[in-house]
C-alpha cells in the first residue's frame, strides 16, 4: 500500500497541488509554485518508471542465467523440444 502511494498517489497529489496553487494564488509567485509542484510530481513519476524499467532488466538477466545453467546441465535450452 505504501509503495502504491509513493508510485502513483504522491505524484498525482503534487500535480494537483500545482494546479490548485495556479488557480488559488493571485500573486506572480503562482507560476513558480505551479512549476515547482508539477515538475516535482512529474519527476517523481518518471523516477518510478525508470526504476521499474531497470528492475525489469534484472529479472531478464536472472532468467537468462537460469537458462544457461539448465543448458550446462542438460545439453539443451529449456524451451527446445526434447
Automatic annotation (TrEMBL):
Top-rank lineage group of the source organism: Bacteria
Keywords: Membrane, Transmembrane, Transmembrane helix
TM helices/strands, residue ranges: 34-51
Name listed for the protein in its UniProt record: DUF4229 domain-containing protein
Amino acid at each position: 500500500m505504501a509503495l502504491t502511494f509513493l508510485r502513483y498517489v504522491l505524484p498525482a497529489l503534487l500535480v494537483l497541488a500545482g494546479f490548485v496553487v495556479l488557480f488559488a494564488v493571485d500573486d506572480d509567485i503562482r507560476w513558480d509554485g505551479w512549476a515547482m509542484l508539477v515538475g516535482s510530481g512529474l519527476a517523481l513519476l518518471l523516477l518510478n518508471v525508470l526504476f521499474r524499467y531497470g528492475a525489469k532488466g534484472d529479472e531478464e538477466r536472472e532468467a537468462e542465467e537460469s537458462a544457461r545453467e539448465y543448458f550446462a546441465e542438460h545439453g539443451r535450452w529449456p524451451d527446445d523440444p526434447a
